Amino acid sequence: MDAGSDTSRVALDESAAGDCGGDAGGATTVTVRCTGHVRDTVGTHELEYTFEGRTLRAFLQAFFGDYDVEDLLIAETEAEATTSGWAPSDGDPPGAWAKNPEGEQTRSFARVAINGQFNEHLDGLNTELADGDRVSLLYPFMFCC
């Protein structure tokens, strides 16, 4: 991994202090579904994955240790998490927009979902996971330009 990926890993680790990251709660087994580039790297579209802890943060730390997909999913900066859209914007979109803190956001077009809901609409990386939950790691193939 390059030095840049260490930045996001530090953000994942630092925020874990005091939560249910990998320190408590025992093992959790989830179903992981992968699309696009993540599927290519992992080698399958679905797998059962057991990790120590109960949060999405603990899952991601363990999963990124076993599969080299962190750089595909986690943005290190706000710029990597934002894409320029094709529609003009005044910078104040309608409705409620939730996002994770910098260093815990997904890259443009990549998403992490728990049971069909994007993590930023739940409790971010502190979202509690239970046995049998479905974690989707989404990074579509894009062919353009």
UniProtKB/TrEMBL annotation:
Q: Which InterPro entries match?
A: Beta-grasp_dom_sf, Mopterin_synth/thiamin_S_b, ThiS/MoaD-like
SUPFAM superfamilies registered for this protein in UniProt: MoaD/ThiS
Q: Which organism is it from?
A: Natronomonas pharaonis (strain ATCC 35678 / DSM 2160 / CIP 103997 / JCM 8858 / NBRC 14720 / NCIMB 2260 / Gabara) (Halobacterium pharaonis)
Q: Which segments carry the region annotation Disordered?
A: 80-102
- This protein is called MoaD family protein
